[in-house]
Amino acid sequence: MIKISPSILAADFSNLGQEARDMDAAGVEMLHIDVMDGHFVPNISFGAPVYKMIRKDFSGIFDVHLMISEPLRYIDDFVKAGADIITFHVECDSDIQATIDKIKAAGKKVGLVLKPKTPASAVKPYLEQLDMVLVMTVEPGFGGQSFMHDMMPKVKELREMIDASGKEIDLEVDGGVNAETAKICVANGANVLVAGSYLFGKEDYKAAADSLR
Ligand code: DX5
Ligand code: ZN
């Protein structure tokens, strides 16, 4: 089954609660929450206090994507704010194993994210402990960028690694996903699609989300 995770980075920030309720009504499985610290990536977005406010407005999974240098320092805050799954970058400065352990000890799901230049092999030592692997199909930091087709061999390789592990691990793609690129991602083995600019701002969120499935 394909799961859709709209990125609230592209939502109307002056109306976040309504945006979350509208996505809930559209029947999407997850809400993708992009936390940026202006250090790991060149942009600053929002933190735990902001998405905590809309936890009540969405009944599905809060898929929190941390683009921050030191995720380990903030896991408690992200858990308290209502994250269901926390994904963090394998390129970050925190100890990867300690961060995985902390998220799991809080009873939450955990995923690792790969920037475009990072090979699939970087997650291999941790794969069996993960609930999700997220492949960036743009350089992280901004919404509305063009899809990087050359990430597809990596998606395929990760799908093969996941299948060989025999574990239930979601394979998510993030960046430049629209109705056309979604098909390509799914054909290469992705089962969770993040989409920001393609979904928010559309007249009919359900029709837009369904066009990705
Ligand atoms: C980029 C973020 C993405 C972004 C996707 O750094 O991780 O989640 O919001 O936006 P679109 O779908 O517009 O490329
Ligand atoms: Zn993201």
Question: How would you describe this protein?
Answer:
- It is a single chain.
- By secondary structure, the protein is of the alpha/beta class.
- It has one domain: Alpha-Beta Barrel (TIM Barrel), CATH 3.20.20.
- Helix 4 links the parallel strand 4 and strand 5.
- The longest helix is centred in the last third of the chain and has 14 residues.
- D-xylitol-5-phosphate binds next to strand 2 and strand 8.
Brief descriptors of the model:
TIM Barrel; binds D-xylitol-5-phosphate; single chain; 20% strand; eight-stranded parallel beta sheet; 28% helix; 213 residues; 7 helices
Brief overview:
With 213 residues, this protein is of the alpha/beta class.
Topology:
Layout: E1 3-6, H1 16-25, E2 30-36, H2 48-52, E3 61-67, H3 75-80, E4 85-89, H4 96-105, E5 109-114, E6 132-136, H5 152-165, E7 170-174, H6 179-187, E8 192-195, H7 205-210
Parallel strand pairs: 1-8, 2-3, 3-4, 4-5, 5-6, 6-7, 7-8
Bound molecules: D-xylitol-5-phosphate (DX5) and zinc ion.
